[in-house]
């Protein structure tokens, strides 16, 4: 049901980016061997999380405040 609710979809995407970046920091071999194909999505999310980390962190804080105080 996160597909039909825009805020839930953004939360899922943001959590996916953060999780993939964390996994790549802890065990890079898990994501580096799958750069193409369906599992390449996780590698791309990890790259976004690494390169845009200040923006991702800002989005995490904004999302946290929106979840805590708007719902």
UniProtKB/TrEMBL annotation:
The keyword Ribosomal protein does not apply. Coiled coil: none annotated. Keywords: Golgi apparatus, Membrane, Signal, Transmembrane, Transmembrane helix. The chain crosses the membrane at residues 6-25, 53-70. Pfam families: DUF1242. The keyword DNA-binding does not apply. GO terms for cellular component: Golgi membrane. It is found in: Golgi apparatus membrane. It is a single-pass type I membrane protein. Involved in the early part of the secretory pathway. Belongs to the KISH family. This is Protein kish.
């Amino acid at each position: 049901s996160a597909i039909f609710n825009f805020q839930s979809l953004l939360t899922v995407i943001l959590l996916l980016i953060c999780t993939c970046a964390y996994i790549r920091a802890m065990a890079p071999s898990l994501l580096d061997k799958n750069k193409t194909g369906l599992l390449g999505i996780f590698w791309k999310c990890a790259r976004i999380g690494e390169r845009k980390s200040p923006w991702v962190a800002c989005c995490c804080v904004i999302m946290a405040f929106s979840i805590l105080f708007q719902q």
